Amino acid sequence: MPPAAAGTSSSDISGSPDPLRASRSRVVLDDHDMGRALTRIAHEVLERNRGSDGLVLLGIPTRGVPLARRIAERIGSIESHPVPVGSLDVTMYRDDLRLHPARTLEHTDVPPEGVDDKTVVLVDDVLFSGRTVRSALDALHDLGRPRAVRLAVLVDRGHRELPVRADFVGKNLPTSLLEQVHVEVAEVDGRDAVRIEGPVEPAAAAPAVPAADQQGEGSR
Questions:
Q1: 116, 115, 94: which is closest to 103 by C-alpha?
Q2: Mean pLDDT by 10 residues, the chain (220 residues)
Q3: Is the whole-model pTM more than 0.85?
Q4: What architecture (CATH level 2) is domain 31-176?
Q5: How far apart are CA 135 and CA 132, in angstroms?
Q6: Which of 92, 101, 119, 130 is the most exposed place for a label (fewest CB within 10 A)?
Q7: Contacts (Cβ under 8 Å, ≥6 apart) of 204
Q8: Domain segments of the chain: what residues?
């Protein structure tokens, strides 16, 4: 599957504004903000796991994969040894597959350590409806039996449709359903940023001016 439009999340659909309406875009996280968020997630994962023993990170394509690798690098730097990291394709487990059957499979790359009796941290860019996470849990089930499964996301934009909650969140970002959240990562998009794009609100009409008030000074 080709990369999703930058940050619409290769997983959850992040909203579908009317393409005919004018839109505006604003950056809510720059590269420095993203770096700090990923570093914080790395520390929180270590604190929750009480170290890196038994940890495996699996990124959900597309942009969850480079994010997982960055978190794993940070954990490895803190712990002074590498942490297993891979990717988990959820394409064939999506609940909308029958509606959109023509999909290209992404790559699943499980570290040699496997997932049995491991603490697996699933990593995605945007958490929205929760349906991608459900698909990831089904895909993970076919790979083995982890001791525990955690979820790390760079952005949680709300609007859940399933009872799914992230364990580690880089940024909670309240949004409208008319807005899209675009996550850009240097490995895919050439830069790091998180943007919100949404329709431009129509300008309020100017109040009507009574005819009497429209007369110039010379008319009075």
A1: 94
A2: 44 48 86 98 98 98 97 98 97 85 84 97 98 97 97 97 97 95 97 93 55 45
A3: no
A4: 3-Layer(aba) Sandwich (3.40)
A5: 5
A6: 101
A7: none
A8: 31-176
